Every structure is written in structure tokens, then in C-alpha cells.
Amino acid sequence: MLEITDIVTSYGKIEALKGVSLSVAPGKITCLLGPNGAGKTTTMMTVAGLLKPRRGNIAFEERNITGRDPGHIVQSGIALVPENRLVFPDMTVHDNLRTGAYSRSDDEIEDDIARMFERFPRLHERQEQHAGTLSGGEQQMLAVARALMARPKLLLMDEPSLGLAPLIVEEIFRIIRDLNAEGTSIFLVEQNVHQALKVAHYFYLLEQGRVTFGGSPGDLEEDEVIQRAYLGSAEQT
């Protein structure tokens, strides 16, 4: 569904991605792991069109979207739930949802907002509140709902559990499972490996701007280096 080939993305003279190649299968949850500063968010922003790669190719459903502007990417069927939520704090919940549909011209936007309120009852209760007054978990739900307003085929989710209480993390991952079960493909960046193992079908490990591992959950759990670094080794040294 998504094919990233030899992508190089830089901040000035500093290469954040150094030839990243990976793919996301349709109907699956693909998770990108890695330490802070590895380039995970840069990967997401490059796919979403917020950063332009210096080299390489990004194809979505066999169409080249490399370097296209974010509006074109959204219209292609990709929506981003950014790191740290980034809701519009001085706008109401309802108006935040409307911004998620900015690329649409159909007459079903309010119907979709009603569906978001059914999926996220807390947002319905707070629809006239400014988004900046919501709790962290509620803002995360709003960020997900706002992205869904674009009716994406592929949802990019960057650290959805970051800074949230354990009970809210459980709820966020339940939402991820439900969305995938309904047919939405998901490309997930997540530091909570144990939660990611419960939902993801395939994993990549990004280190210093390069992919160093690709495999199934079983492969991930069997890899000795990843066990020590991310899952906790059963052996004490």
C-alpha cells in the first residue's frame, strides 16, 4: 500500500534519514520502533508531505507521491495524527473536527462529525469546549478523530500513547485495534513496545536514520539485541 524506497531527508546539512526503505501492507498495522532521535517522526512527516526528501521515492497505492504537498497527500488517502496531538487549542472540539475535512467538498461532513461523536462520546460531551482545555487523553482522541474526518485509507500515528496515563493508553490502543478491524491501514510510531506487540502485524526498527530490522512480532521477540534494548532481557548480566 505504501512503499518507501531509499528516502534521504535532511535538516540543513544534517541527514536525519539516510536511505530508509520500508513498506506498509494494506489492512495491516505496521509499527516503526526506535530510540529518540532515530528519525521516526521525520519519516512520518516526510510521508505526510511536511518535509521534502532529498532523494528516494514514496509510492502510495502505486502512485508516486514523493515531495507532493500535504493537501495532495491527504486527498490521496493518507492522514497524520501528529506527535503531541497538535490540536488547535483556541478552537472548539467541533471546529477542530471540521478542519480535518478541509480537503473535502461533499455534504456529509456533519454526518461524519456525528459519527466521530458516537465513536468518542467524551468529545461529544465537550464539543463546544476549546480543545486546549481538554485533558491529554481527550486531545489524543480529538487528534485521531480529526484525522479520520479526511476518510483516510492509511492513518499515520506518531507516538499516540506519549505522556498518557496507563488507562488512557489502553483505550487508545483499543481504538487502534477497532480502526484496523474496520479496514483502516495504520502506520504507527510507538515507544511502548509491549502495547505495540499486541496490535501490530509487522515491525521495523529505525536507528540513526537507517532501518536495521524488519520482521513479525515473533521475529521481534526472538531478536536478542531488541530483547535487551526494548523488551527487557530475561537474562541478567
CATH class of the largest domain: Alpha Beta
Order of helices and strands: EEEHEEHEHHHHEHEHEEHH
What is the oligomeric state here? single chain
Between the first and last Cα atoms, what is the distance in angstroms?
42 Å
Number of domains: 2
Q: Could you name the ranges where pLDDT drops below 50 across 5 or more consecutive residues?
A: none
CATH architectural category of the largest domain: 3-Layer(aba) Sandwich
Please count the beta strands (DSSP E, at least 2 residues each). 10
Protein structure class: alpha/beta
CATH topology value of the largest domain: Rossmann fold
The proportion of residues in beta strands is 25-35%
What would you say this structure looks like, in words?
Helices cover 38% and strands 25% of the residues. The protein is of the alpha/beta class. It folds into two domains: 1-68, 3-Layer(aba) Sandwich (Rossmann fold), CATH 3.40.50; 77-185, Rossmann fold. A six-stranded mixed sheet has the order 6-7-8-3-9-10, sandwiched between helices. Strands 2-1-4-5 form a four-stranded antiparallel sheet, with helices on one face. Helix 3 packs parallel to helix 6. The chain is globular, with a radius of gyration of 18 Å. It starts with a strand and ends in a 6-residue tail after the last helix.
